[in-house]
Design a protein that fits this description.
Layout (H helix, E strand, L loop, with lengths): L16 H6 L5 E6 L19 H11 L4 E4 L4 H8 L5 E4 L4 E4 L3 E3 L8 H14 L7 E5 L2 E5 L8 H14 L3 E6 L2 E6 L5 H11 L7 E7 L5 H7 L4 E5 L10 E3 L2 H19 L2
Parallel strand pairs: 1-2, 1-10, 2-3, 10-11, 11-12
Antiparallel strand pairs: 3-4, 4-5, 6-7, 7-9, 8-9
Helix pairs in contact: 2-8, 4-5, 6-7
The protein binds the ligand O=P(O)(O)OC[C@H]1O[C@H](O[C@H]2O[C@H](CO)[C@@H](O)[C@H](O)[C@H]2O)[C@H](O)[C@@H](O)[C@@H]1O.
The site of ligand L263DTV3 has 24 residues, from strand 6 and strand 7.
């Protein structure tokens, strides 16, 4: 059974570094990272979430010593363009669309059949919401995020109504939640947690040498935290509206960067004997 706790009750990954690393049991962590709210702070609009040079350097150095994947709700190509590193793996649209070094490319969740429904839903939502000031319909290959961060509070219900109307007419799609967004996703049992386990298998990491470690900040990251309970480490950044299946926490994007740098040093020391 999945154990859940309040975010505030989790120990800090930085304050409890020694205890956290003891859980590696001599294995190397394979590192899976969310993008928004984890590698970049949450900002008013998606295109404003720019990766800092310092975080890019931390990711590049970590990927030189272990496997690193960004597992995002964003469109895969979009998050690749934001990160701009070719030694990482990228899982976009919540894990439906995966690429990696050496031309690796796969769509393991089997979402292709949902593309016509996503195209249709995108068109309907663009039209229905064009008069709702501040709303934004963000199309990803295998998901649509309907943003209401910049919508007046008394109009958010209108956004939700439009989303529900589309979903009622399209059984191929289901709703997902995030920070000030409603998401329309393929109605398939696939999520970030399954994408992480798929990558572990595909990259040959399911052995005594590697342990999965996942860092994320949002509701969709809970699928990964739940999947890793008992077989890996989940770290929540900040908090969201619900309890969490993560076992440690970090307070901010800056703490994520410091933690990643420490991981790189730890892995380097281990390989130097
Ligand atoms: O899984 P992630 O990489 O964390 O992606 C989740 C969603 O992130 C983006 O939206 C969120 O970040 C925006 C920029 O900070 C913010 O304005 C928005 O309110 C947040 O929900 C992205 O735009 C979505 O497509 C992702 O699903």
């Amino acid at each position: 059974m999945i154990q859940k706790r309040e975010a505030q009750d989790l120990p800090s990954a930085l304050n409890q570094l020694h205890e956290l690393k003891a859980q590696f049991q001599g294995k190397t962590p394979a590192v899976f990272l969310d993008y928004d709210g984890c590698l970049t702070p949450i900002v008013q609009r998606p295109e404003m979430a720019i990766l800092s040079d310092e975080m890019r350097t931390a990711l590049h150095e970590l990927a030189a010593v272990t496997k690193v994947a960004v597992v995002s709700g964003r469109d895969r190509k979009n998050v690749e363009d934001l990160v701009k590193l070719d030694n990482l793996y990228f899982a976009g649209s919540h894990g439906f669309d995966i690429t990696g070094p050496g031309g690796m490319a796969s769509e393991p969740g089997g979402a292709k059949a949902a593309l016509p429904a996503l195209d249709k839903a995108d068109g309907i939502l663009q039209e229905k919401l064009q008069h709702v000031a501040g709303s934004l319909v963000e199309r990803k290959r295998y998901a649509i995020a309907v943003h209401f961060r910049n919508v007046a509070e008394d109009q958010v219900q209108e956004v939700r109504k439009a989303v529900d109307e589309v979903l009622d007419a399209m059984p191929e799609l289901k709703i997902g939640y995030g920070k000030k967004i409603y998401e329309l996703k393929p109605n398939i049992d696939w999520h970030k947690g399954k994408a992480v386990m798929w990558l572990m298998q595909e990259l040959g990491l399911n052995d005594d040498n590697y342990i999965p470690l996942y860092i994320g900040d949002d509701i969709t990251d809970e699928d990964a935290f739940a999947e890793l309970q008992g077989q890996g480490i989940g770290i929540l950044v900040g908090e969201h509206d619900d309890q969490t299946a993560a076992t440690y926490r970090l307070e901010s994007v800056e703490e994520v960067r410091v933690f990643l740098q420490d991981l790189t040093d730890t892995i380097k020391q281990k390989s130097n004997g």
